[in-house]
Fold these 2 entries.
Entry 1:
Amino acid sequence: MIGFIGGSGIYDALPLENTREEHVQTPYGEPSAPITVGELEGVEIAFLPRHGRDHQYSPTNAPYRANIYALKALGVERILASNAVGSLREDLPPQTLVVPDQIFDRTRHRPYTFFEDGIVVHMPFADPYCPHMKRHLAESAEEASDAEVVEDGTYVCIEGPQYSTRAESEHFRASGHDIIGMTAIPEAKLAREAEMCYATVTGVTDYDVWKADAEVTLEEVLDNAAANEVAIKETIEHAVRNLPEDHECDCRHAVEGSVNTPEEAIPHETRQKVDLLVGQYLDD
């Protein structure tokens, strides 16, 4: 099963057949919405709108842990995602698709891990996106959409929901970052903790606030997000149809050797809570 997490502007699934709704309860609360499961040319897809069907969850309070856990519980092994982002470069205008390979985290008020209450996991995260999935998404965008596509780049993730100040925007530009958004973290971290391959295609909606003749407005963001929706869905559909069956990579063993707490010291309730995620590493 392939997971698809839709960002701003994408609140409904791809043209799926034999659809059903899955209401998944998790130890971390309810997901953003019931998960739509269906088939695209024989491939099973699980779709989830990150912000809810009516965009009722802000970037800070979206239930990221419940979303990733629910997809894991349904049997999802690989996640394709989308994000609306601002551009920090003149040559990345609105309606460009960017498939980033790095993240710079500036968030402050989000739960970043599944592992708490008596268990500590120190997991490597040098390359936050699955390199195989990232490459496949970029190739799919090039082949399936008419949009300008850029592979690689650093996504600055800010807390929001407010946009940047001009000073912040200039700072991120001076640091050499490429795009800016509000939802890459903790989603990418949680997907890695769940040992799921994860990559995203982002759609540029604005120039942030660094550009002298540009201001970020909700109207502009929504208009460009709507224009990007077609290209993003074309990309995701192509990626699903052509996704290699063999996907052995480091993502699938990311937690191995990373549990720092002796098994006998982990509280029983915590052990039950994270069994889906690390049970295989805790069993004698």
Note: The longest helix spans residues 218-241.
Entry 2:
Amino acid sequence: MSEWAGVSEFVAVAETESFTAAGKRLGISTAQVSRQVSALESRLAAKLLYRTTRKVSLTDAGRTYYQHCRQVLDGLSEAERAVTNLQDTPRGQLRVTAPVTFGERTLAPLVNDFALRYPELEVQLVLTNQRLDLVEEGMDLAIRLGKLEDSSMMARRLASRQLHVCASPAYLAAYGEPHSLTELERHQCLVGTMDYWRFSEEGRSRNVRVKGRLRCNSGWALTDAALKGLGLAQLPDYYVQEFLASGQLVSVLDHLSEQGEGVWALYPHNRHLSPKVRLLVDYLVESMGTLHMDSLQPQMKNPRANIP
């Protein structure tokens, strides 16, 4: 028998001075209340209640036991309220990791706004292009970009990003604008961490190997190289959109661009999605754009993106 069996029934009887009223309060039968209290007395080897046809009252032992049980039940109620309040108002530590540039330009301002909304939350944002092990590093959430691989992670799509192949007007004036993927062989391609670029041709994804005399794992460095006319670069929109708008860079091969790649929120599938994480993910979905996948589902991790 559980050590808690009969306690709620006993307290209800002590406070209502009636087995019938206690049953109504608890939503159970009078007989069940009586059985539970009798079993409790047998287990304690003590008489807790005086029973007469007119009245139920506490014995000395019952009065002492009631006082302790009331404190315990009050503590449980307080614990439930604390959990409920925690769900309504996030507090405690929230650890998030994301790629550096996307984190600096897009994620950090949103996380900062989220922290302002919930002042009892302690946020640690770790920006790194290394893909940290969420469990080993104690991360609550990771933001990943691009295509994802099968894994034990859960993922929710937050938004999309678009890749652009672009170059300066001076470069295109000197070397011409490519109109097909085969023409890339004749161009200086500014290579990132991967030696291929991603396209969509006739509805199929296609990786095209590229080469050039400049390679760098920094998106900003490749953007600068493209601005200075050193070649073509394939870069996410958050690197180049302002330069495309100003005309300092020109987007090419747009008809072969893949549809927007995913921006993902990942967390371990075996970890309960806490209210603070769920609220942050919902906030990011709302702030970043239209959600393409409405539910949390088994997905993938470790996106193979050219530039973080």
Note: The two ends are 58 Å apart (CA to CA).
